[in-house]
Amino acid sequence: MDTSAHIRALKRALRGDVRARLNALAPDVVKDESRKVLTHLFNLREYRQSESVSVYLTMTGGVSAEIETEEIVTDLFKREDFRSLPKNKWGIAEPPLEEARENALEKDGLDLIIVPGLAFDREGWRLGHGKGYYDRYFAKVAEWSALAGRPIPKTVALALAEQIVDTPLPREDFDQKPEVVITPAGPLSSAST
């Protein structure tokens, strides 16, 4: 087995293990840990100083437990219409496709990207859900920032305690590391608060 196939197999096995742990979490644990993580996020200097933020929306309905992000969206937009948005097939609230929304990469860029992940190691490396979306998104944003002469946005990941693994995650060349991983106990990295 070649090295990249071996790494992909390790990632696949780890994803299964972490999903099983997350699926075993009681909803009140997820809610409590989400509250703690969001308190740390809201106190993070990078969050407080950001004007343009990209944030993932919590998936519901049959997927693994993850940090509940609705409060972030409410805080950022200070709008009530978020709760009335229709949900897509993944249970994620989103505006109708025909509704015009500003694309930050077509205007002034982003200051902060809040990313999900399935697992994180103690060095802050991230294991995603296996589709490579955020690794490609980070690269796209970095390219746009360079062309626009803007700084690359800060990246922050949010994690439940069960998402932290003690051994280093298997990595490939394209894997991207968030600058800060926030857990219920606080940031894993040396982010300023």
How would you characterize this protein structure?
The chain is built from five helices and eight strands; from the N terminus they run αααβαβββαββββ. Strands 1-2-5-7-8 form a five-stranded mixed beta sheet, covered by helices on one side. It has one domain: NagB/RpiA/CoA transferase-like (Rossmann fold), CATH 3.40.50. It has helices at residues 3-23, 27-43, 45-48, 70-77, 133-148; strands at 53-55, 112-115, 119-121, 126-127, 154-158, 164-165, 180-183, 186-187.
Order of the strands making up the biggest sheet = 1-2-5-7-8
Specify the biggest β-sheet. Answer: 5 strands, mixed
Q: Any low-confidence stretches, pLDDT <50, length ≥5? A: none
Number of structural domains: 1
The value of Rg in angstroms is: 17 Å
| Secondary-structure-derived class | alpha/beta
Shape: globular
CATH architectural name = 3-Layer(aba) Sandwich
Mean pLDDT over the full residue set: 85
In CATH, the homologous superfamily goes by the name NagB/RpiA/CoA transferase-like
Topology:
Layout: H1 3-23, H2 27-43, H3 45-48, E1 53-55, H4 70-77, E2 112-115, E3 119-121, E4 126-127, H5 133-148, E5 154-158, E6 164-165, E7 180-183, E8 186-187
Parallel strand pairs: 1-2, 2-5, 3-6, 5-7
Antiparallel strand pairs: 3-4, 7-8
